[in-house]
Write a structure and sequence with these properties.
The complex is a heterodimer of chains A (351) and B (239). Chain A has 351 residues and is of the alpha/beta class. Chain A has eight helices and 18 strands. Chain A folds into two domains: 179 residues, FAD/NAD(P)-binding domain (3-Layer(bba) Sandwich); 154 residues, FAD/NAD(P)-binding domain (3-Layer(bba) Sandwich), CATH 3.50.50.60. Chain A is elongated and about 65 Å long. Helix content of chain B is 52%, strand content 3%. Classes of the chains: A alpha/beta (351), B mainly alpha (239). Chain A: InterPro entries: FAD/NAD-bd_sf, FAD/NAD-binding_dom, Metab_Enz_Cyan_OpOx_G3PDH.
Chain lengths: 351, 239
């Protein structure tokens, strides 16, 4: 493989899988480097249930993307491997991998993803203190298992509360962004819970509901109208435990202007998307800049929309900021195509 | 969503006749209760800016009404009418008349700062409470607090003499706040002072009360100072 026919793709989540497949489809070679021992990224590693908006199980939908890449002769896959060094410049990069191998590539696509917010950083909401306080990821795993039960004693919950904006939109902990997908994921999760456990009532505590675009009726309205999810405009002050073992959700219902202390059986944190914990390292190795929140910074928005601050290196998916799977896939295609254009030496990009 | 909260109804909008007979039917008391509708007719567009001009309220415009401040509020736990989230909403929209309904409790903020620590937008609600209380006081909408009266007496003496005289400050403060000059604890305090203070010190204090000396070469300093303070206040609140 020469540098002139190869694109190095880092990360194999939806964005990276899409980028690699695009490069191969355009007749070039992709080298896909993944730090974990499985391909698929967050949806697979964190065990997401049904995806928004297709309703397809993550393992099926993303699994299809994985097998497309695995079965492609133009794509070389390195699992449990990281890029430890990148030399050269646009058109002739040489990457050194953590296993000592080197890869020559004309351009690079970063699809390094995000890190789920760690709820331990909001101790007042009881995660890590009470067994029945979970994150959306854990709840998705419970949905995948087909049974809705309280982790503490296995009882079927009468009531589940989902708290939105945990680790998003919060100056106190330096998360000055909306994680974009948690509202939709939560309304979807509410429906899944109700489907599996019809006797369980689901409450969503919100500051705003941001089921953007076509997610409005398909998720927000449907959840409210057909699945009877109750929406309460309140940001919860704290989650405590009552003597009978149930959780108590304390706050102000801002619409009735009254304090609330409501018993719940499970409390779910709709956790946000943090910049990948590895972004500082990634920025150093690849020589790309980070934007003010810590996500990978982008080049000129309109003529080089997948570009990073370094020529020849592109970025896609949640590495650039919170995003949904569909956009990540689209960005992967876009970054892949752009990276291939570089191999032809025809790029005239603004950085 | 309609708000069916009984306590949101102002008492003066409840119409009820104690004795009323219509067509021979006695509908006295609650049988004839009517509630006149409340319509908000306008916003005071400049109000948010006015409150923001007081120290502590600079970030009030950031509020998105999540209610974290009210949730965490020490006073709200005692009295649900003490609702910082609601007052911030009224300030932002300029619903002054609504805010004034709670004017007599806004000062009760104990500055525990739990709201400021939890607010996701860094509105600093504790500062807004203080600013609002100051605005209320400065505009004569609530009675002056004793601490303000003390501050005023203290400042007046500083400006006039370039110094303060403890006895004078206390006397002035008691006069301003309508407290009797002779109080048991003061009498006791005086007695012990006389007993323990050296005679020279006592004489000096007595002379100061009688002759009210000014700081050396104070001259026009007080006037200039007073003018400066006035200009600063005007610039802050009316600029």
């Amino acid at each position: 493989m020469s540098a002139q026919d190869t694109v190095l793709v880092v990360g194999s989540g939806p964005a990276g899988l899409s980028a690699a497949a695009t490069v191969a489809a355009m007749g070039k070679k992709a080298v896909l480097v993944e730090k974990e021992d499985v391909l698929g990224g967050a949806p697979i590693i964190s065990g997401y249930a049904k995806l928004v908006p297709s309703g397809e199980w993550a393992k099926d939908a993303i699994g299809r993307m994985v097998s497309r890449v695995e079965g492609d002769g133009n794509i070389a896959i390195h699992k449990q491997t990281k890029v430890s060094k990148l030399d050269g410049e646009a058109g002739s990069f040489t990457a050194t991998l953590s296993d000592g191998k080197t890869v020559k590539a004309g351009s690079v696509v970063l699809a390094t993803g995000f890190t789920h917010f760690d709820s331990i950083n909001k101790p007042e909401w009881g995660f890590g203190t009470y067994e029945d306080v979970l994150t959306t990821t854990q709840m998705e795993q419970m949905v995948s298992s087909g049974q809705i039960r309280c982790p503490s004693d296995g009882r079927v919950p009468e009531r589940v509360a989902i708290l939105l904006c945990v680790g998003s939109r919060d100056r106190q902990i330096g998360r000055e962004w909306c994680s974009k997908i948690c509202c939709t994921v939560s309304t979807n999760l509410a429906m899944e819970i109700k489907e599996i456990s019809p006797q369980t009532d689901v409450f969503i505590y919100y500051m705003d509901i941001r089921t953007f675009g076509l997610y409005e009726d398909k998720f927000y309205w449907k959840s409210q109208e057909e699945f009877k999810t109750k929406f309460v405009k309140a940001r919860i002050a704290e989650v405590t435990k009552s003597p009978d073992g149930r959780l108590l959700v304390k706050g102000e219902d801002t619409l009735v202007k009254r304090p609330i202390v409501i018993p719940m059986d499970i409390v779910v944190h709709a956790i946000g998307m943090d910049p990948s914990l590895e972004n500082p390292e990634i920025a150093k190795i690849f020589g790309v800049g980070l934007e003010k929140h810590g996500f990978i910074d982008k080049a000129e928005q309109y003529t080089n929309s997948q570009g990073t601050t370094r020529k020849g290196i592109y970025v896609c998916g949640a590495a650039t900021g919170p995003d949904d799977i569909d956009s990540s896939i689209a960005q992967g295609q876009s970054a892949g195509a752009r990276a291939v254009a570089d191999l032809h030496g025809r790029q005239k990009v603004a950085v | 969503m309609a708000i069916h909260e009984k306590t949101l109804i102002d008492p003066d909008r409840i119409l009820q006749h104690d004795h009323l007979v219509i067509d021979g039917v006695d509908v006295s008391g609650s049988w004839n209760t009517m509630i006149s509708p409340r319509t908000l007719t306008d916003y005071d567009d400049g109000f948010e800016k006015v409150i923001q001009s007081y120290a502590g309220a600079e970030n009030v415009h950031r509020c998105w009404q999540c209610g974290s401040c009210t949730n965490s509020c020490t006073m709200y736990a005692q009295n649900v009418d003490f609702n910082p989230r609601y007052w911030i909403y009224l300030i932002r929209l300029g619903l002054k008349a609504e805010l004034l309904k709670d004017k007599d409790i806004i000062w009760q903020c104990v500055s525990c700062n739990k709201c400021t620590n939890i607010c996701p937008k860094d509105v600093r609600p504790e500062g807004v409470m203080k600013a609002t209380a100051h605005w209320l006081e400065e505009n004569g909408l609530i009675a002056k607090t004793r601490s303000t009266m003390f501050d005023e007496e203290f400042t007046e003496q500083c400006i006039e003499y370039g110094r303060i005289e403890d006895t004078e400050v206390m006397v002035g403060f008691f006069k301003k706040s309508g407290q009797p000059l002779v109080q048991a604890w003061i009498v006791e305090f005086g007695k012990r002072l006389t007993k323990h203070l050296p005679l020279s010190q006592l004489t000096k204090m007595g002379m100061n009360v009688v002759f009210r000396p000014k700081t050396k070469s104070w001259g026009k300093t007080g006037e200039v100072l007073a003018e400066y303070v006035k200009a600063q206040k005007e610039a802050a609140h009316h600029g």
